[in-house]
Specification:
Helices cover 72% and strands 1% of the residues. With 464 residues, it is mainly alpha-helical. Helix 1 runs antiparallel to helix 4 (137-159), helix 9 runs parallel beside helix 14 (411-423) and helix 10 (304-332) runs parallel beside helix 12.
């Protein structure tokens, strides 16, 4: 049965009503791509690529610590800083790529094709990690850059569907359900990898551990590609206002439209202010997610199995956390709920700094706390931003948004990497992330959110 979409004030007529089947297709892309975020970014890639880099730096496989250096492009880099620096580099590249992808999506009548092209490119690069053996840290870094940028590009297109799937009062729920389904998908694949690691690992054989990590990464690429086929079939192409007005080359028109948007964006200063707040606090969130496994292995000296169990715990608790914070948002509003989540994130960082070494239980308890706030803070930020976007420019604005969304933070990893290179301490690097949550909270608290939604030409939801 078709569901109605609430019309907005001052905007063109609403797009055709979305269907339950279309929404399920949209949820399932989160199921597909969360395998990359969870299995690759959160658990395996950091320790895997760091180990490969340490081998290239002359360190022994399985050593407790490594003070070696590698020299990509002639630049002296500590082996432990290589992966955080790669994350920062990938985001510097996405700054140029993602807004253009968003502008193209707004002018294209074939969003599904764009989603499929980006998703299959990223999945292919992830599967190609099977070739990263021995000391091939440069190949691993290059494939990661392709996969992570493609991941971000696909999410830009995916997010741009959200305003077409529901009205102002529906989007918090739609976004929260998407995140929740994504955490389930990521958790299922991670559980399968946990079984594989448990069954096939050998104590005292670090090479076997490294091989298992590599094939777990490959499995995420396969999962991503296969399950992307479902949303590509179920999602519908809604008419794009920009595409109906335009003509000619979509890519060229996309660049020109992006230029116009950059000139006109000053007309929406409150939207920009919210985006700035999001870029700051979500950079901290993404850095914690991305570097958690590296912190666990290198600083806390935890076994790979402990890390997988903890992240698995995070995934399934995040399913409930996303739905729970979504329910809280219906009572007190998404804006207040996100602010509350940032207070909880600050407490998480302080607790993580005090974790003892080689103690799995405290690490798992902290992981559970992360799971309860993780999904909700991200899902509600996404739906809240959808209220601040002028009609017809969803892709472009989500292109800017995605610069600091799933796996694409850059200031946090850069700060973490620099602090580690100066101090050789992962704990001190972790503390440097507190500033992102404190400043992000202050910036978000200063946004007059109802006035910002009206200024963008949209109708505010009943509760903010």
């Amino acid at each position: 049965m078709a569901e109605t979409v609430t019309p907005t004030v001052g905007n063109p007529p609403p797009p055709p009503a979305s269907t339950a089947r279309e929404r399920r297709g949209w949820y399932l892309y989160d199921w597909a791509n969360s395998a990359f975020q969870t299995t690759v970014i959160t658990v395996f890639l950091g320790p895997f690529l760091t180990t490969v880099t340490e081998l290239a730096a002359g360190c022994e496989l399985g050593a407790d610590s490594c003070d070696g250096y590698v020299h990509p492009l002639g630049i002296r880099v500590a082996a432990g800083s290589y992966y955080p620096y790669l994350i920062s580099l990938s985001v510097l590249l996405t700054v140029f790529v993602l807004p253009v992808i968003g502008a193209v999506a707004d002018r294209s009548a074939h969003k599904r094709r764009l989603l499929g092209a980006a998703a299959f490119t990223g999945a292919g690069a992830t599967i190609a990690m099977a070739l990263v053996t021995g000391e091939r840290y440069l190949l691993g870094g290059a494939l990661f850059l392709v996969a992570n940028i493609s991941f971000g590009a696909a999410v830009v297109v995916y997010n741009s569907f959200l305003p077409q799937l529901g009205g102002p009062d529906e989007r918090d729920g739609i976004s929260s359900r998407g995140w929740a389904i994504g955490y389930l998908g990521g958790g299922v694949l991670l559980a399968l990898n946990l079984v594989a690691v448990t069954m096939f690992s050998e104590e005292g054989n670090p090479q076997r551990t490294l091989d298992l990590a590599r094939w777990s990464i490959v499995s995420a690429g396969v999962w991503w590609a296969v399950f992307t086929l479902v949303p590509l079939r179920w999602l519908r192409e809604h008419p794009a206002a920009a595409a109906l007005r335009g003509g000619g080359n979509v890519l060229g028109d996309g660049f020109r439209q992006l230029g116009r948007t950059l000139r006109e964006i000053k007309a929406y200063p409150l939207t920009l202010y919210f985006l700035l707040a999001f870029l700051v606090y979500n950079d901290g969130i993404q850095t914690v997610i991305t570097l958690a496994s590296q912190y666990g292995t290198e600083e806390l000296h935890l076994e790979q199995g402990t890390l997988i169990v903890t992240i698995l715990l995070v995934q399934f608790l995040a399913f409930g956390g996303a739905l729970g914070l979504g329910a809280l948002a219906r009572r007190i509003g998404a804006w207040k709920t996100v602010l509350l989540s940032l207070v909880l994130w600050t407490a998480v960082i302080i607790a993580a700094f005090r974790l003892p070494e080689k103690a799995p239980l405290p690490f798992m308890i902290l992981g559970g706390a992360i799971g309860l706030v993780l999904g909700g803070s991200q899902a509600l930020s996404r739906s809240l931003f959808s209220q601040l976007i002028p009609a017809g420019k969803e892709g472009e604005y989500y292109g800017f948004y995605e610069i600091s969304d799933k796996g694409t933070s850059w200031l946090g990893p850069l700060a973490f990497g620099l602090v580690f290179q100066l101090t050789q301490s992962y704990r001190v690097g972790l503390v440097s992330l507190l500033i992102f949550f404190v400043i992000g909270f202050a910036l978000l608290a200063a946004v007059p959110i109802r006035r910002a939604i009206v200024a963008a030409g949209n109708t505010p939801p009943r509760v903010l």
